[in-house]
Design brief:
The protein contains 16 helices and 8 strands. The chain is of the alpha/beta class and 419 residues long. An 8-stranded mixed beta sheet has the order 1-2-4-3-5-6-7-8, with helices on both faces.
């Protein structure tokens, strides 16, 4: 009887998480901050942010955004403003000051596609109806704006700049600035969640955690050097699961979205397994008809963001404890590791990672039945965790239950081969 895969499991988690340890500890501090301190840009970083900071995209084509637009006049109650993004002065539509003198929460709504149209206001009307100050930015190269189309790169800087602009609007509460976006705007929102910003939380409606297929096959011109792999990686959140540092809510329609629905759920689970704040929800409708309900759902999350931050803080602390337990496990200090994993579970009872870690420690100590119970608890929480199924198979094998072990291992392989 052997428990080799239980040991492999623990090492796999450390390899995946190695770039995340510092960000996790700093993120805990932000989650505990009072609302006054949130008004300035969060002084935290991520692997994505650091790599992006040391990289300059190579645009081999300098072109405007590849989508036509009409020059439109804002409707009553909305005004056109200009915000600075680096040395670019970009257009946006902004809700006029309300009649009261209160400071209001605000939301930046990133439109779908590669140009802004007045009809995009319809998607965001719910925010206006519930007292939010709405800003709808036009990004670099769009709608006659200066700058070049960068296909999910410089546009992230524009969304960061939009939050900076809002923070200085007299009738905006700078501690409650949020970001959401549909389709292309949703994808940009996902990428922005990995950057230090003034945003309190973000939401994506039908955005893509992985963008390489769209860039290569979407029919739009690719302006950057496609021979450099880093160009693709820094435009795709799926390469940086450890880098989500601002609460991110993913919404995808349950009709006609193909693999995006399942992959977004998979992405969110993996982000959470590293102690970071990301949630997924399937919403009734297709890519467009699901937006209205998605807006309503994310507004509810925004209005209760303090409660979610507390939950995210527990998750982050639990993951930090897991890392400590894993270090002890690597030193073969099984009993001490189990105690730390128990603390991680007490902090976040829904942590599949912590339950797997405790099970691994028990298994390596020869306590196979107790290990099996931990892996079954992990599967109860997330029945699509291939590692939990694999570890269950190894525990059953160690107990001599070969038929049950083979069944669990087959399930693990099915899940692991989905992506």
């Amino acid at each position: 009887m052997r428990m080799s895969n239980l040991i492999i499991f623990v090492y796999l988690v450390i390899i995946l998480a190695s770039g995340n340890a510092i960000a996790t500890d700093v993120n805990t501090t932000v989650s505990l901050a009072n609302e006054e301190s949130i008004s300035s840009t969060k002084q935290i970083t991520s692997r994505f942010s650091e790599e992006r900071g040391g990289f300059e995209t190579n645009l081999i084509m300098r072109i405007p955004a590849p989508q036509e637009y009409e020059a439109e006049v804002p409707p009553a109650g909305i005004k056109e403003v200009f915000y600075d993004s680096g040395d670019l002065k970009l257009k946006a539509w902004l809700l006029d000051k309300p009649a009261d003198d209160d400071k209001h929460p605000a939301v930046v709504f990133a439109h779908g596609g590669f140009s802004f149209g007045g009809s995009d206001l319809e998607y965001a009307q719910d925010f206006i109806d519930h007292g939010y100050i709405l800003m709808m930015p036009m990004l670099r190269g769009e709608n006659g704006n200066p700058g070049n189309f960068e296909y999910f790169y410089g546009e992230v800087d524009d969304l960061l700049a939009a939050a900076d602009y809002l923070a200085n609007v007299s009738y905006v509460d700078s501690t409650r600035i949020f970001l959401c976006g549909h389709s292309v705007g949703g994808t940009l929102s996902i990428l922005t969640s990995m950057m230090p910003s003034r945003y309190r939380a973000m939401a994506s409606f039908g955005g893509m955690p992985a963008t390489e297929y769209l860039i290569s096959n979407g029919g739009y011109p690719n302006p950057f050097d496609s021979t450099n792999r880093k160009e693709f990686e820094l435009r795709s959140a799926s390469y940086y699961l450890d880098s989500i540092i601002t609460p991110l809510f993913l919404y995808v329609g349950d009709q006609g979205e193909g693999s995006l629905l399942e992959f977004s759920d998979y992405f969110a689970k993996n982000v959470r397994s590293l102690g970071n704040p990301c949630e997924f929800k399937a919403v009734r409708g297709d890519h467009w008809s699901s937006v209205a309900e998605s807006v309503s759902l994310c507004r509810g999350e925004f209005e209760n963001i303090s409660a979610y931050e507390a939950l995210a803080n527990n998750r982050s602390q639990s993951y930090s404890l897991f890392l400590k337990g894993n270090d002890l496990l690597n030193l073969s200090k099984f009993d001490e590791a189990i105690k730390i994993f128990d603390q991680a579970i007490a902090t976040d009872p829904a942590s599949v990672t912590a339950w797997n870690g405790k099970g691994a420690a028990l298994g390596m100590a020869g306590r196979y039945e107790e290990a099996l119970a931990c892996f079954e608890k992990a599967i109860e929480i997330d029945d699509e965790s291939d590692l939990a199924w694999e570890n269950k198979g190894e525990a059953l094998r160690a107990m001599g239950l070969m038929a049950e072990s083979n069944s669990a291992m087959f399930k693990a392989r099915q899940l692991a081969n989905r992506w």
